[in-house]
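Submission sheet (multi-component)
Chains listed below:
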Amino acid sequence: MSSKILELKNVSKIYGNLKALADINLSVNAGDWLSIMGPSGSGKTTMINIIGCMDTPSTGSVILDGVDISRENAGSLTRIRRDKIGLIFQQFHLISYLTAVENVMVAQYYHSMPDEEEAMEALAKVGLADRARHLPAQLSGGEQQRVCIARALINSPQILLGDEPTGNLDEENEGIVVDIFRRLHDEGVTIIIVTHDPEVGDVAQRKIILEHGKVVGDIDQSATFGEALKLKGKGE
Amino acid sequence: MENRTRNGSRRRMYLKMVSSSLIRRASRLIIAVLAIAIGATILSGLVTIYYDIPAQLGREFRSYGANLIVLPRGDAKITREVLDDLRGLIGTEKIVGMAPYRYQTVKINEQPYIIAGTDLAQAEKNSPFWYIEGSWGNAEDTSSVMVGHEIAQTLNINIGDTFTVQGVRYGQMAEASRQDLSAEENQKRDLGAQNFSMKLSVKGIVTTGGAEEGFIFADIDMLDDLIGDTFRADVVECSVVADAAELSALSSRIERDIPALQPRAVRRLTQSQDIVLGKLQALVLLVTVVVLIITMISVYTTMMAMVAERRREIALKKALGAESKLVMGELLGEGVLLGFIGGALGVFLGFEFAQRVSLNVFGRAINFQWALIPVTIAVFITITVLASIIPVRKVMDIHPAIVLKGE
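Outcome: structure written.
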């Protein structure tokens, strides 16, 4: 039986009069692959920011690897994020003046100690060993996102978080990135991604549907997002 | 051992990030480097001039005449040996001119005048402000002398004219002209063995507006030969490169080490020199401070723009787990490197600037001050770091969740 790696208990996030997240309860086991879908403004990014230790909930608690991170200060959250979370962004966010391998090494540098050999291995895993010495501007969007994945994985995080990781990619590169996620999932990496794309979301083992800050659907791999939305429409 | 490897590896990565940021973003940082380099150029140039002004202006001031008058103590005269001792004590590198004078009364057309025997070459160095019609006399052509403008008018003589000087040899008694003899007979009596007579020609007419116009200036060795005596100077006029304090110290040393002499500093001249130097140095200092402030403002605005431009990169680093102080350290590291490059450029450009100023204003070249390299670089690293502190602190206000928002 898999151990629980993340648990959100009655998590709410309130901005003035706006309730971005309302009483969210969610638990994730180690090795799970979750897709979070929902329309714009449904609270996906707020949720991923809270899980990724870049924001804190207004109420409720977030237990990450047995530690309640909901009341931690900014310094502690930075340390937890560094040690336990790997982040992938829609816009890649690579450092423009560093090569691909140096971008991976930056994450090592902030975590512990840069090791070029390890960084090269991580790039090889995403099929970019031969592009390691290129600057981001010399890489395609798909290649940049693969560097981003290598960077997110380099410190062996407990959760890989992706905020629209395929949002800026063409179909071919989207397929490459999804394949990488599939492989990582097979290796036991816990993956949580926010996506607008049902095709990407459907590959995940578990699908969460958010609407107006609430979880309105939590389904397993047997159903697609389309089916899940139909079921929700019927009130089931 | 493991710790050392870890630290070494982290240090290399830090340097890699800082240097890559500057090298690969060179076009964006060129304005910052230029601002620092221009500041450093002006600073190092002005500091070079600041330290060179006393030497340069000190020599300029020497054109206003001797600043140290050395007299013999009591009734004695200054011998050649004592003069050499004096030269050694002052130091040849400090002496612009050192002219001994021997004053001798002579008769021209039975009227008394004074010949000032001197080292004409040294007197010329001491008194570049004298206006000379014709030219300075020299030791090679000893029968050619310079006469004061007043004497030239009285005797109605001009350049190239000759006149005869007569007088009593050294140690001989003068005989008064006899009333019962004619002027011609008295002149014949003056040509006796105890007297001298020599025809001199006018090489130059001296106009100074001062007492010099009442003297005849001749070579001191010629005068010694004429009067039949060895070198004995009545006074030595020295033009020394020194400020008031140095001159006072030099006077004390002369009094202590050469008791036969009593030095007198020309206070009015040395004090004026000190006042002008002080004001000039204060002006240079003021300009330097203004330049430093302007450089700081320029670096501050550049760093502000740099932090704003790199918000995403900073947010990303924080999202990857970098603490604010680590990111601030990287930006300050870039500031240090900018200060280093700008400062290093400025040192050499500043020397070129100072050299041109010195050549144009003082007509003399200056020496490169090696100490300026570390000093200028250190000053500009400090300025860059100080000017970067406020912009770099903005890092603390950057929230990765807000800045890196996907949509």
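Remark: The mean pLDDT of chain B is 86.
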